[in-house]
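Protocol step 4 of 5: obtain the predicted structure for the target chain.
Materials: sequence only (see below). No template structures provided, no constraints applied. The aim of this step is simply to have a reference model before the mutagenesis design in step 5. Sequence pasted as it appears in the construct record:
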Amino acid sequence: MTERWTQRIDPRWVLALTCLLGWAFKGHCGAAWGGSIQYVTGCYSDAVPFWGLRGVSAGQIPYLEARMEYPVLTGLLIWIEGFVTRSVFGASATAAHFLFVVAAVNAALAFLVLRMLRRAGVDRARQYAWAGAPPLVLYLGHNWDMLAVTFAVAALLSARSGDTPRAASLAALGSAAKLFPVLLLPLLGLGALFSRGGSSVARRVVMASVLVVVAVGSWALVNLPVAVLAFTNWSEFYAFSSERSGTAGSVWEILAQSGWWATTIPERNLWSAALFLGGTTLIVAAGWRRHGARPWILFAPVLAWFLLTNKVYSPQFDLWLYPVLLLTSYRLRPVAWFAAADVAAYFAEFWYFAGLDGQHPAATLSDIALAAGFRAGAMLWIIGAALVRPAPLWIETGRSSTDDVHSIAT
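Step 4 output (structure tokens):
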């Protein structure tokens, strides 16, 4: 029965429905927010304030003419989407129209990810898990993180196929859209240095050096022109990240609000970096015995640990991790837990903001802590399982297998 169902329904139709739901979720309240509807219903989108506050409606060029707290490829995407909005809707273009264009572009990227999964031979269970992804409903119209997600997936699939220079280039370009794909680069470098293919030390050093040159060159190609022309605006993303105190769903803010451990911004920067680096070292060391031949698989636990230790954990960050888990997790049950926890954490945080405005439903900081703890439990399971479990079947075989349909529940 399950096998016939998975063969009869194309994942692309499921993804189309998911994208429609994602657009309805964000677009139903348009851009005229009243009564804190953006928090009560969860329809908040960064596209709405960006339309007016970042010069998108006026066609201003990011960094050169307008502030932009995103890396350059995301800034470029925002400008292109603004241009499309003004071209299609003309003088009547509004923030609601811009939101529609943002969601449409993210939907196209989601279909591109699905196409890459299908071409790589990812089993249909994982294709369905992406096509019906709850994070896509929540974040399709939320902001522009799908661009970096697409680069990250492409980089992982390139690494899986053995094309590590291409993987390094894609990861570096992804970090020019959002920083997190940069975490894949050290794993690729370590794989080149300590490969098990019998290559000489000199050859391995040369290969690692090539990856460094490719990654730095790819990143510099898109960043240097903007940095030279408008350094202050270009560097705002990095300054903004350093100066932020944190978000309600981060462990640091939860500890502070609970009265367990209050920290200043410099202290959070220091402790989060120290915990991330120390934990990542342990993750890579512990996982190397099983995954040393394919160290890119450890990108999932490293990214999960980064999110757990980072001082900022915005809800949409879950979209970063979700497709990486689909590619690398041996089983999908903890991924399903993570997706459910993402929904809980999303509404806990936005209903907290609604409560601050005197609206209902209202959540408390304790509700956020509970949802974040539920999510952290899934992530710790994911990290532990990644270190002891083998690669999923699709990686071993390189082709879809109906046996993996059952991996959701086993």
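Step 4 remarks: Confidence is low (pLDDT under 50) at residues 400-410. DSSP finds 21 helices and no strands in the chain.
Proceed to step 5.
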